[in-house]
Here is the input.
Amino acid sequence: MSASGKSIVVLDYGSGNLRSAERAIARHGVDVTVTSDFDAALAADGLVVPGVGAFEACMAGLLKIKGERIIGRRLAGGRPVLGICVGMQILFAKGVEHGVTTEGCHEWPGTVERLDAPVLPHMGWNTVDAPSGSALFAGLDADTRFYFVHSYGVRTWELEADPSGNIRPPLVTWAEHGDRFVAAVENGPLCATQFHPEKSGDAGAQLLENWLATVD
Here is the structure.
């Protein structure tokens, strides 16, 4: 067990920068395991769901290891989950690529679709517009840049606020490439980023440190 006493699983479902995510998280002094094992992913203090490539392929891989059930059961128990890149996209209701619609995990309503931008993929460093009170972006300046590689994203946030006001609405961070898209979400135990914190240098390291601070 690490000095921090925290255990993190990077979920291996056949897609994602597994080793780069593992190394980036391990630098913070926590125990990191890359595995597709159902019980290990459930038992870890924190779960990271990376993802690269096509939405449809990532969902197929996730379903093969019952990853959607792992995510759902963890969230039902208030256990932290962090999605990265396509690992964020698959948390939404559906993805539409090349005319093909694929069901996602339905943790949030919304559609992952092709960005409306003159140049795709959106590849490189970009600033984000984080809301006040964000835990993920705590200590980071407004002009901080993160590394993005994607052609698809969520351009409309569709989750309606709780009319009673009893449930705190998710904190949504936006970025722009052609038009606006969701760059990160903080929703209780479920957090996600469209960019790659593991490829974002010191800024990404600070964000991962911030997320790990929320993991009990």
